[in-house]
Amino acid sequence: MSKEEALETLSTLKADFDAAVKDAQEDGRQWRWLRRYHDPKAREDEFAGYAAKTAALSELLGKDDKAGAVQTLKGMQADFDAVAADCRAQATGIFESFFHLNEMEAQKFEGYSATVRKVAQLI
After folding, report:
1. Which H/E stretch holds residue 80?
2. Residue 9, Cβ neighbours under 10 Å: how many?
3. Rounded Cα–Cα distance for residues 12 and 109 (Å)
4. Cα–Cα 20 to 30 A to 79, which of 51, 64, 69, 118?
């Protein structure tokens, strides 16, 4: 049961990453001053990498390679925690004080980290 739940959680996480890739692609098509991301291509590449890691992780779980899966999960969790910490460390300017974009991004990555921790507990 826990393996199936872990795989389901990973598929949901991969769907989130795939949606973020599409979002970055759409943002890259916007006029430069209307973009939400400073570098949409870098964001697309970042989330495509997370999606690829998640797919590889699902394959590892399918092969019952728990050691490899745990190692991959630890790496992903460290990546997500680092991004969240970086977002929280950003200076708070007037734009951030109104829109809280860095705060929302940090919360999103903390959620990814929590999901990865949950998967690690399930396997």
Report:
1. helix 66-89
2. 16
3. 15
4. 64
Residue 76 makes CB contacts below 8 A (sequence gap 6+) with 50, 53, 54, 57, 112, 116
Q: How far apart are CA 77 and CA 65, in angstroms?
A: 18
First to last CA, the chain: 10
Confidence (pTM): 0.86
The pLDDT tens digits for 57-107 are 999 988 888 899 999 999 999 999 999 999 888 877 776 667 778 888 999
Task: Name the phi and psi angles at 120, rounded to 5.
Answer: -60, -35
Q: Are 10 and 119 in contact (CB under 8 A)?
A: yes
CA 66 to CA 89: how far, in whole Å? 34
